[in-house]
Design goal:
The chain is mainly beta. Helices cover 0% and strands 55% of the residues.
Amino acid sequence: QVQLAESGGGLVQAGGSLRLSCAVSGDTICISDMGWYRQAPGLERELVAAITSSGTYYSDSVKGRFTISRDNSKNTVYLVYLRMNSLKSEDTAVYYCSGGNGWGQGTQVTVSS
């Protein structure tokens, strides 16, 4: 089993940047793919970025603005980041990281216009 915890959300003006972090602990050796999802009020949860052994994926809505990366150099904690630039009001949502069949609790990102 894995445990995931997101951090780094907050309130930012349109055009600004944030970096989300996801700390993954537990049975991290089984993790190959990680993803960042988001869910806005009244909408379904959607995948915005993923990182696998083959490369990265971005949804069309964030391509060119968001960057996913990971750091698995530490023995006990596996870190996944989502760098978000040029934020727009439509990026407002709760952001979740997922991997190893686990989910974090989410972190709120609010972009004011």
